[in-house]
Write a structure and sequence with these properties.
Strand order of the largest sheet: 1-8-7-3-4-5-6-2
Number of helices: 22
Number of strands: 16
Structural class: alpha/beta
CATH class of the largest domain: Alpha Beta
CATH superfamily of the largest domain: Phosphoenolpyruvate-binding domains
Largest sheet: 8 strands, mixed
Distance between the termini: 36 Å
Strand content: 5-15%
CATH topology of the largest domain: TIM Barrel
Number of domains: 3
CATH architecture of the largest domain: Alpha-Beta Barrel
Length: about 575
């Protein structure tokens, strides 16, 4: 019962103490011998494929129900990889021509894909490597008859300790029984962490060697906010008090679900909205007191389709969201495809750096027939409630003006056809490229609003891929350089009487909220579950103290200096 303390990456908030559940997978043994009966191996492969596909379809449905469309897309991507002809044909060729066993063929083909993806710098392909590993393991287990652990069957309170958790494993977790998980690898932006936050399960990742330090019947205590882990805690009562304190704070937050958004000194003009990926997510937004949809990621309509979605299909989805919001504003981002988001029915040209290439507005303004279908659907939906159309990846004033002009042409077409377009329609843009932030006041002459996409703005400003472990230290939301870009953006918009929202992860971060309040951000859009906490933070601060905080923060040289100032304010 040795006591040990670990510090990892706090990846999903929450405090818990429970018995250790060591996730040890049965070993997969690859049969390197020559296949005696290739036909029998092919039969095993086809059976494994069918079972794996059945698993993924179920996982997608479960995830859709529990977590919404955006998270369910992970398993749509898994299905696409599973059915990739290059993988299937490669496996069958090795069995038929080289007399490989099914396990050896699966292992070699998927292993080659993993190695190829891991060697690339592109975020999209790195994520695909992890996905291929997940699919490969499931295929191999079915082919070899190896047990697949059913994490949904856990029937006592535990904290899972593992090397890593795959998206398919995380999706199975029941928050009533799984009180947290601690893994050797991973970080805040991994699929497992993102899904843990949606499930409201505490998670500490990047612990490196915790798996070798625990055994069955150990007790583990964890704080998913700070990343602190204690095995066989010396003083259980201390942790039990932390658990109770966290529960009390969560109960306190419930009071803010339906409360007005108002600061300590009575300022009422901040709007707290939420980001969604499908109409199914709106229910959650309203349940947590969201006052707007700050970002509807329309690309999921395209990624969850076998062909370009029709105008009618899109109109139905957009109208449903606007209707459900009952007069509260909705901002829908136009198709943001390319980079890390691919389509099964369209082949993007090869680029060495697709994140800075042919994507988002650059793609849609080049493919105006595809863009027209979406814009018409959006304009039609605007007749049913306040709607903002938002263009992603805008770099120049000319680019925005051209996209806006195209939208207004579509509006004229619809009006000629006798189709209504909403009077509350707004046309705005994402601020995610530093070039746009620097001259935001110029864009504000033409745009009705801005929404800051901090995830991309930060990595483009710092020239650092936030998914790269080697340079992750440069992903700094609180860098004085980022604060100066945000000030330019907000001041530039307000100069022309336009409003500014933020739909990147920073909008819901507790340490960022006081800074954003002081900078004068108008709308904060985040995950729905973060809305009550943001409202609580705002209620404890005055505008004057947040403005004084920002004035000091803008004089800082480092992220650490900025964070120290914020901590003094929020205590």
């Amino acid at each position: 019962m040795a006591n040990k303390i670990y510090k990892g990456i706090g990846s999903s908030d929450g405090v818990s103490i429970a018995k250790v559940f060591i996730l040890k997978e049965d070993k997969i043994v690859i049969d390197d011998s020559k296949a005696k009966d290739p036909k029998a191996e092919i039969t095993k492969y086809e059976s494994a494929m069918a079972k794996t596909k059945e698993d993924l379809v179920k996982l997608k449905a479960t995830t859709l129900e529990k977590l919404g469309a955006e998270k369910a897309e992970i398993f749509e991507a898994h299905l696409s990889i599973l059915e990739d002809p290059a993988i299937g044909e490669g496996i069958l060729e090795l069995i038929n021509k080289s007399e490989y066993t099914v396990s050896k063929a699966i292992n070699e083909v998927t292993g080659n894909f993993v190695a190829m993806f891991e060697a690339m710098d592109d975020e999209y392909f790195k994520e695909r490597a992890a996905d291929v590993k997940d699919i490969s393991a499931r295929l191999l287990k079915h082919a070899l008859g190896v047990r697949i652990i059913d994490l949904a069957a856990i029937n006592e309170e535990v904290i899972i300790v593992a090397e890593d958790l795959t998206p398919s494993q995380t999706a199975q977790l029941n928050p009533k029984m799984v009180k947290g998980f601690a893994c050797n690898v991973g970080g805040r932006t991994s699929h497992a962490a993102i899904m843990a936050r949606s499930l409201e399960i505490p998670a500490v990742l990047g612990l490196k060697d915790i798996l070798s330090s625990v055994k069955d019947n150990d007790i583990i205590a964890m704080d998913g906010s700070t990343g602190e882990i204690e095995i066989n805690p010396k003083d259980k009562k201390v942790w039990e008090k932390k658990v109770e304190s966290f529960k009390a704070s969560q109960e306190e937050l419930k009071k803010f679900i339906n409360a007005p958004t108002v600061t300590k000194d009575g300022f009422k003009d901040f709007i707290l909205g939420a980001n969604i990926g499908s109409p199914n997510d709106v229910e959650n937004v309203l349940a947590y007191g969201g006052e707007a949809i700050g970002l509807f990621r329309s690309e999921f309509l395209y990624m969850d389709n076998s062909n370009w979605p029709t105008e009618e299909e899109q109109f139905t989805s957009y109208k449903k969201v606007v209707d459900l919001m009952k007069g509260k504003p909705t901002v829908i981002r136009t198709l943001d495809i390319g980079g890390d988001k691919k389509l099964s029915y369209f082949q993007f040209p090869h680029e060495d750096n697709p994140f800075l290439g042919y994507r988002a507005i650059r793609f849609t303004m080049d493919k105006k027939d595809i863009f027209r279908t979406q814009i018409r659907a959006l304009l039609r939906a605007s007749a049913f409630g306040p709607l903002g159309i938002m263009f992603p990846m805008i770099a120049t004033v000319d680019e925005f003006k051209a996209a806006k002009e195209f939208t207004l042409e579509c509006k004229k077409e619809l009006e000629k056809e006798g189709i209504k377009v909403g009077k509350d329609l707004e046309i705005g843009m994402m601020i995610e490229i530093p070039a746009a932030a620097v001259i935001a006041d110029k864009f504000a002459k033409y745009a009705d609003f801005f929404s800051v996409g901090t995830n991309d703005l930060i990595q483009y400003t710092m020239a650092a891929d936030r998914m790269s472990e080697k340079v992750s230290y440069l992903y700094q939301p609180y860098s004085p350089s980022i604060l100066h870009l945000l000030k330019l953006t907000i001041d530039g918009a307000h100069k022309h009487g336009k409003w500014v929202g933020m739909c990147g992860e920073m909008a819901g971060e507790p340490h960022a909220i006081p800074l954003l309040m002081g900078l004068g951000l108008d709308e904060f859009s985040m995950s729905a579950t973060s809305v009550p906490r943001a409202r609580s933070i705002m209620s404890k601060l005055t505008i004057k103290e947040t403005q004084e905080l920002v004035a000091k923060a803008l004089e800082c040289e480092t992220t650490e200096e900025v964070l120290n100032l914020v901590k003094k304010v929020i205590k």
